[in-house]
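Renewal narrative, Specific Aim 1. Our central claim is that a sequence can be written position by position from structural information alone. The example that follows is taken directly from our test logs and has not been curated for this report. It begins with the structure tokens describing the chain, in the order in which they were read.
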């Protein structure tokens, strides 16, 4: 079975005409089961459009704090992103550096495993538990362990205002140093990114109450004065637009080539960037203070070979079926981790029918 939600992220090795299996679409599992604004709790069926949930939360002055990305522009797809797809892929945006990932806001899940068993784990409150944490396990499993039918999420209030600090002209290593200094400051940074290239721009975001944002912006600009002139974008709509463009990797939308998503230590990002530029014509965007790198590469370029000696892992986000077959979407796992993953999949999907081949199983 190929598990599908809104169809906006067709990133799997087997997602294409050659897939030998049955589509299982979750979009009919739609609707908000429970929403308690005072308790910051939301229970929603997995096929519910993300836009429907965000609209409901915005009406109450709340939001999904982890800022999920919209892949449609990058992947040139249509449809509507769904809550189940968001959780299954653990989609988390720039605010992850402050609030955490999608999995950190999951309170509970309900899903069907590969044998047809209905399993429920977690609840409607955040608490420490003993035993297996299936809530965290399902986030980022890409439908290989079970088909999500319902999720419980913690939500947070929206910020009153936001501001963005922009620095032009920094080369990668200096930019990552500036982002690290900002993230290490007491000024509660909610976004730290760098767009590399001929006209590089480093962007830092602050959110909160108006007076607080004004004060913290001024203090942070003073702290980072060694990096040159710093502009402060105080127009809320323009600042939001900047971060939406970064969140959705819009500089790569219309560009030809493969898009890779690399996770690594922030201080290693510039080292990888230098290797990639030496090897080919590469374009890079650094997010999460440098811990997440988006790379636009020539078609068919083996980016993982450039990670030799640099701890981290790379996933193909956008490429042709031929390139995916050649390199596999997900990086091969080390033997110990591979055996552990295989054992987990055997427990939840012993017949191997859920998105087979997607994560190397």
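The sequence written for that structure reads:
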């Amino acid at each position: 079975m190929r598990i599908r939600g809104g169809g906006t992220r067709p990133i799997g090795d087997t997602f294409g005409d050659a897939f030998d299996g049955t589509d299982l679409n979750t979009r009919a599992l739609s609707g908000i089961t429970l929403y308690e604004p005072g308790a910051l709790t939301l229970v929603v069926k997995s096929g519910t459009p993300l836009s429907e949930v965000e609209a409901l939360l915005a009406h109450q002055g709340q939001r999904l704090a982890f800022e999920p990305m919209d892949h449609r522009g990058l992947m040139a797809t249509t449809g509507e992103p769904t809550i189940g797809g968001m959780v299954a892929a653990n989609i988390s945006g720039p605010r992850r550096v402050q609030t955490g990932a999608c999995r950190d806001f999951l309170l509970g899940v309900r899903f069907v495993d590969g044998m047809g068993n209905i399993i429920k784990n977690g609840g409607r409150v955040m608490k420490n538990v003993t035993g297996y944490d299936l809530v965290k396990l399902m986030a980022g499993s890409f439908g290989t362990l079970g088909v999500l039918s319902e999720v419980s999420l913690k939500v947070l209030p929206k910020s009153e205002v936001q501001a963005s600090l922009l620095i032009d002209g920094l080369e990668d290593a200096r930019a990552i140093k500036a982002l690290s200094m900002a993230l290490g400051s007491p000024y509660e940074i909610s976004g730290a990114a760098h767009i590399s290239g001929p006209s590089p721009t480093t962007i830092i975001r602050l959110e909160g109450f108006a007076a607080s944002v004004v004060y913290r912006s001024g203090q942070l600009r003073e702290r980072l004065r060694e990096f040159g002139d710093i502009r402060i974008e105080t127009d809320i709509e323009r600042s939001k637009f900047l971060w939406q463009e970064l969140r959705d990797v819009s500089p790569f939308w219309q560009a030809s080539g493969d898009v890779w998503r690399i996770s690594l230590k922030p201080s290693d990002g510039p080292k990888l960037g230098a290797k990639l530029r030496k090897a080919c014509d590469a374009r890079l965007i650094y997010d999460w203070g440098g811990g997440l790198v988006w790379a636009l590469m020539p078609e068919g370029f083996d980016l993982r070979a450039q990670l030799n000696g640099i701890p981290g892992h790379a996933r193909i986000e956008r490429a042709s079926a031929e390139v995916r077959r050649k390199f596999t979407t997900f990086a091969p796992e080390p033997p110990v981790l591979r055996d552990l993953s295989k054992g987990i999949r055997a427990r939840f999907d012993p017949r191997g029918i859920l998105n087979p081949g997607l994560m190397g199983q």
